[in-house]
Inverse folding.
């Protein structure tokens, strides 16, 4: 029997049972499509989170106050709530830590802000000129806070683009205008470039003011909420972290590092913990998709088994008129391959379209990975071939008389 | 030319041994129209399976056109069926939802005949079996019983076999349609085809020119029919 004739037979037998063929293909399409789409969404979400962490600043080390603990008590008031970091700590880091390229002490608090009748509630970051370098922030219009502003306690403010939109309308002119933070007038001197991001700590929904002004007019006291430090290069992150820890332990007169009233985190630490979360997310999605692939596989298996059982008499007839074992096995195997291959191709297209749709409507950049495509395709092809071929081989071995009499 | 010598067929089901054929011997010359007749359980189905190269005998020889078929392997039997034997079954066994022409051309597919020729031979065969050309592209399930059986006969003819084996070809048909089908066999025989009709009905067997009676695995009687 010629191979072209085999394919013609397959074409006829599949089109003679359109609904059955369609359902088999559908099972494969859904199985493969969902694996590809879900893995794409999972990986897209991971890389989304990672880029947003990286956009916060490369080579960044953040010092935050730890939990205050009274003498002789184990009661902890919660990380970050202590007022243990001061301006003096920041100055000490700046002057004595050699691996620090730029240091930006920050004091952050949320206030109600008004301008020309519009108002919003956003976080006000009191900081210095180095903030730009430490956190990868760029100025779009006007200028950022300079050291002159900090020294003379100027009431000037730089707005994030989202805050500008909230206070002056989308794309409105902000530079030169006046806003009121906690009822104190500030002059807008600049607007930053959008960085993207959402939710808490959105770098676009922020107002920057000189740290001295924030401490004097808004927060009161010289406490700071965090210090961002940019390392000279990526390799010195760990030694920088160690240097800062040693310096602050000495300044705070703490001998046991485990009792430190501050914490020093590198960008890598944050990235690592975020990766754990996003990997879990990817695994979760992949396992859901794996289940649907399994269900799809069982569908193929079921369909192939029924098909062969249903066609036992046909196999008997084909054998009676001269088909030998290999003709029968070949036809059924290629039929299974054709079905799974068609389903596989359509499934890849479906998965790709789904991840495009997710990219468009959910804002997560879906990444179709070749390993997911390969895995999904491979698994369903394997199932299709094994469960298409095995019963066909069994049927091909049947005595034609028994096959013909099969009811 | 069919020469059957002392064919014995034993079956083993569990501990029970059963001898379906106990030494059958006869010869059928080319161009004969023979009916093999016997009640159920007589061994005539077993004999048909052996003659049709669907099964092999336990002992004895079966020469088909001078070639010993009784000791062949499964693949070699398939080749014999492909080249030398045409089957007509009681239940037609056409491929469902498949056109008449494709059903008839099916044996040629396994014989490796090119597509264009397949259709040509299938059409000739259908005309020989008495089918009207208007039905050639109908689907097998749109036909009446008599038409289906004539399609099956055309399929049996298509590879120009040495022997046409018809197993109860009228069993699923009413008497009138059965007569038409038997008439078709008669015409084919007159054109030189060797036909072996297996049946348990005497009326049907009477259409042949010779009847071999089988009972309890042995040839009871072998006589010519006087028309």
């Amino acid at each position: 029997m010629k191979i072209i004739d085999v394919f013609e037979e397959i074409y006829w037998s599949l089109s003679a049972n359109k609904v059955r063929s369609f359902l088999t293909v559908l099972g494969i399409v859904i199985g493969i499509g969902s694996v590809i789409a879900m893995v794409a969404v999972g990986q897209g979400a991971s890389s989304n989170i990672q880029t947003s962490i990286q956009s916060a600043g490369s080579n960044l080390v953040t010092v935050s106050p730890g939990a205050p603990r009274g003498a002789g008590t184990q009661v902890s008031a919660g990380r970050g709530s202590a007022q243990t970091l001061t301006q003096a700590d920041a100055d000490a880091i700046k002057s004595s830590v050699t691996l620090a390229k730029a240091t930006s002490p920050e004091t952050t608090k949320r206030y109600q802000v008004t301008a020309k009748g519009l108002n919003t509630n956003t976080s006000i970051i009191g900081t210095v000129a180095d903030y730009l370098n430490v956190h990868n922030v760029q100025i779009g219009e006007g200028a950022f806070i300079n050291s002159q502003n900090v020294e003379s306690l100027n009431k000037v403010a730089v707005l994030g683009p989202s805050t500008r939109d909230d206070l002056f309308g989308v794309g409105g002119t902000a530079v030169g205008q006046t806003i009121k933070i906690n009822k104190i007038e500030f002059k807008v001197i600049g607007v930053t470039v959008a960085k993207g991001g959402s939710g808490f700590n959105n770098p676009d929904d922020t107002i920057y003011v000189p740290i001295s002004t924030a401490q004097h007019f808004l927060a009161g006291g010289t406490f700071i909420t965090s210090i961002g430090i940019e390392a000279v290069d990526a390799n010195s992150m760990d030694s920088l972290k160690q240097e800062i820890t040693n310096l602050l332990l000495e300044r705070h007169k703490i001998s046991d590092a485990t009792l430190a009233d501050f914490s020093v985190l590198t960008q890598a630490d944050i990235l690592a913990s975020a990766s754990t979360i996003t990997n879990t997310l990817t695994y979760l999605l992949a396992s859901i998709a794996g289940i649907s692939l399994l269900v799809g596989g069982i569908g193929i298996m079921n369909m192939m088994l029924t098909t062969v059982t249903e066609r036992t008499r046909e196999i008997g007839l084909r054998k009676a008129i001269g088909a030998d074992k290999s003709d029968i096995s070949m036809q059924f195997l290629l039929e299974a391959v054709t079905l799974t291959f068609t389903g596989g191709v359509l499934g890849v297209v479906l998965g790709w379209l789904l991840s495009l749709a997710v990219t468009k409507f959910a804002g997560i950049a879906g990444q179709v990975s070749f390993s997911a495509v390969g895995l999904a395709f491979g698994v369903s092809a394997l199932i299709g071939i094994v469960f298409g071929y095995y019963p066909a081989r069994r049927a091909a071995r049947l005595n034609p008389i028994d096959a013909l009499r099969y009811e | 030319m069919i020469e059957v010598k002392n064919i014995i067929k034993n079956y083993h089901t569990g501990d029970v041994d059963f001898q379906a054929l106990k030494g059958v011997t006869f010869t059928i010359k080319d161009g004969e129209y023979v009916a093999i007749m016997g009640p159920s359980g007589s061994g005539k189905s077993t004999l048909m399976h052996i003659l049709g190269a669907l099964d092999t005998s336990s002992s004895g020889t079966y020469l088909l056109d001078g070639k010993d078929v009784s000791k062949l392997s499964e693949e070699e039997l398939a080749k014999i069926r492909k080249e030398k034997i045409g089957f007509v079954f009681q239940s037609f066994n056409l491929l469902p939802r498949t056109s008449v022409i494709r059903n008839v051309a099916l044996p040629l597919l396994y014989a490796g005949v090119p597509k264009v020729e397949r259709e040509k031979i299938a059409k000739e065969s259908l005309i020989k079996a008495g089918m009207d050309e208007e039905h050639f592209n109908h689907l097998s399930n749109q036909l009446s019983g008599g038409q289906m059986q004539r399609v099956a006969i055309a399929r049996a003819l298509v590879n120009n076999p040495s022997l046409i084996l018809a197993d109860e070809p009228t069993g699923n048909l009413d008497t009138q349609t059965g007569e038409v089908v038997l008439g078709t066999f008669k015409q084919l025989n007159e054109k030189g085809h060797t036909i072996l009709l297996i049946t348990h009905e005497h009326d049907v067997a009477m259409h042949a020119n010779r009847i071999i009676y089988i009972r309890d695995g042995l040839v009871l009687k072998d006589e010519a029919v006087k028309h």
